[in-house]
Amino acid sequence: MIRSITRQKTEEEIDRLLNGYSRIFIIGCGTCVTMTRTGGEPEVTAMQRRLRDKGKLITGQAVLPVACDNLTSEALKEYGDQINQADLLLIMTCAFGVQTVAGYANKMVVPALDTLFMGKQTSEGLFNEICSQCGSCIIGETGGICPVTSCHKGLVNGPCGGTNDGKCEIDSNKDCAWTLIYNRLEKLNRLDFIRVLKRPRNYQVEPTPGKWNL
Amino acid sequence: MKAKTPSKLEKILASGNMAVTSECGPPRGSDPEGIIRKAEMIKNHVDAINITDNQTSMTRLCSLAACIRLKLMGLEPVLQMVTRDRNRIAIQSDILGAASFDIHNMLCLSGDHQNFGDCAQGQNVHDIDSMQLIQTVRYMRDEGKFLGGDAIQRPPQMFVGAAANPFADPYEIRVPRLAKKVAAGAEFIQTQCIYNLDKFEDWLSKARDRGLTEQVYILAGLTPMKSAGMARYMKNRVPGMDVPEAIVKRLADTPKEKQAEEGIKICIESIQRLKEAKGLAGFHIMAIEWEEMVPEIVEQGGLYPRPNVD
After folding, report:
1. How far does B180 lie from chain A, in Å, by closest CA?
2. ipTM of the complex
3. Fewer CB under 10 Å: which end of chain A, C or N?
4. pTM confidence score
5. DSSP of B204-255, one letter per residue?
6. A161, B116: Cβ pair inside 8 Å?
7. What percent of chain B has pLDDT over 90?
8. Do B240 and A183 touch (CB under 8 A)?
9. B129: which chain A residues are within 8 Å (Cβ-Cβ)?
């Protein structure tokens, strides 16, 4: 399943963002950030304790079921009083959740997390970015592996000269996308696809910021 | 192959002579003296001089300005251009800028990842890749048009080159990848530094079997080793580099003060052997911050004097 992959900001950065605010309400989310252990119940509680120890007044905390859903508007109403007493909302969700909450609550919001990528959970505790939603999918010719996302240079016409025993030259923890593609196409007897020259990509399929109206 | 551009490098290759190119890295500052000094050292021993484009992603004086310096000295520059730092507007614009100074050679590269350099947190561009850059320059030259379709007044007359690394894995992809660059429009190739001569000769013979050496001039890349330490570093730390243990051992077994000399000797021996390789069109000598050794390497390699084609 697709997950929004997040990492908690450093304590220093969070403290700097909270500087000057003493009354804080903390929001987590029951979906992606619970799975990535960055904004579920335990993390929200740990944050509450840490900030209380630092002298902040925590007016309350909530773990919304799906922070990016429009029902968040209703969920927030349940905590109306506690939110009203706060000067600021510290939000331990991905940036989708932060922006959704910010749209409903008339309060300053501070994200406690950085949103890294939209990822697939490939095994317990392991998340991989495999699609960057570029709008012009070419994986029909690359054995179902996306080089736009998985190659550090986003190369679409084959590997650079820096492959390193099947790994990427800049990160030996990451596979070389084109080695994966080569191996898969070879197995499928379709190496001819690598020979085809791909034209420059259309980056304006859906210009940023994307908007789709059914 | 017949020359299609006013490039001196192309004319030498088309005349059937072995070409010799070398390269200079621009300074990390605005003083042009370094480029001029390096070019003076090697100008009588090479046919063209590559100017690197922010190699290893370290910010330097730009390749285009340094190429113009060479041009003003009456020399033959090869403009290296990476796709890492420019989108397709900037790329076409820089090509026209180079052409306006009658720079007639270009080497199309994707470029080292920014992670290796002094702006590791910066964004790379790769709006087009090296393969598409080759196509872009050829299109601008041959069709006289911008990528957008409009006509170019006085199109660039570039002799178009690309890089090839015969050693990176998977090895099986390396000759097909060369074929793809040729299909995209590459007219000359400068290879990654060669230390494993057997493997290079194997790659070259496979390229020859596919008829590629009849379609593209392949220049063998050579970098003399300064020390056993450098050999070890390149063997163990530089991805895509193939340094046989015998080379490391030969340098390590040489007294420290003689290792540089031994490195030059290895380079010269490589030239002497590869000169006989069928299908090879010349040499690209990358003496990194060691340009003063290029004349000796070229002379001892039996590649001097350089032909005069004008």
Report:
1. 6
2. 0.91
3. C
4. 0.95
5. HHHHHHTTGGGTSEEEEEE-----HHHHHHHHHHSTT----HHHHHHHHTS-
6. no
7. 97
8. no
9. 153-157
